[in-house]
Amino acid sequence: MKVFDAIIEVWNGEPVDEVYRKYSDDVKDLPGYNLEYILYALKWILEQEGINFKGRPQKKQEQLDKILKRHNIIVPKGREGSELAISLFCEIASGVHLVEALIRANLDVVPRKRGR
To answer: What is the C-alpha to C-alpha distance for residues 64 and 24, in angstroms, rounded to an integer?
Structure first.
């Protein structure tokens, strides 16, 4: 949950270096990528989502708003494009299986062998 909190803080515009310093000791023993790497990569990806965003159906927007509201997350101004990604993280953080969360987000996961 500390990694999730750090992601939300960066999404809200906090500088990665400050967020990293705040959480690095809490997550240093977790497996996987270093928190600093995760935060810088996601910062870039989430900003790209905002640049590419052209809107979404109202029903889907209401669904995303509801997910974020359950986690007491307010969408920062101009970050609507990355709201889908953040809602995916919210679902996973609340215990939804990764595959189910991807399906709910309408993200298609093609098995590696079938994708060739």
So the answer is: 29
- The per-residue pLDDT for range 44-75, each reduced to its tens digit, is 999 998 888 898 999 989 999 999 999 999 98
Q: Is the pLDDT of residue 116 over 80?
A: no
| Cα–Cα distance measured from residue 59 to residue 39, given in angstroms and rounded to the nearest whole number | 30
Residue with tokens 């000791």: 25
Alpha carbons within 13 A on the beta-carbon side of 50: 15
Residue 116's Cβ-count burial label (10 Å; 0-12, 13-18, 19+) is exposed
Q: Which residue stretches of the chain are H helix?
A: 2-11, 16-27, 35-52, 58-70, 83-93, 98-104
Which one, of 30, 49, 37, lies nearest residue 7 by Cα?
37
What are residue 4's phi and psi, to 5 degrees? -60, -45
pLDDT digits (tens, 9 = 90+) for 15-35: 999 999 999 999 999 999 999
